[in-house]
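Researcher: Here's the sequence for the chain we discussed earlier.
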Amino acid sequence: MEQVVPWSALVALIAPYYPEGKTGRPPFSLQTMLRTHFLQQWFTLSDLGMEEAFFDVPMYREFAQLQEFGRLPDESTILRFRHRLEKHKLAEQILATVNDLLIARGLLLKAGTVVDATLIAAPSSTKNKDKARDPEMHSSQKGN
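Model: Thanks. This is the structure I predict for it:
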């Protein structure tokens, strides 16, 4: 999606409506919030679900361009961004822009999934060093 989504065009579309952050906590970058919004849409996450996913899935933090040990957008920040898009009818324009680009490239996005897998060392057999069956390694049969 890094290469497919026109990030700069979408940022330019939203920028006039994004707060400058003159008071209160500094806002997250517009690019980060836009990427967060896309993650939410692609993986059907609620605002709270997105907040929790940032803690659980390093790949999401990386995609949203968040620092590894930095501040993360919370549920209310994500909600306010989404409401801002809805208020100014930007969500429809974002969707139209992305869909037009995908169609022009012959692509289609329906749903996504992320797998964060870790490889671990494991014995290649259910037998231990003594060539005897290891009691901790067992198999099951269908129906039993």
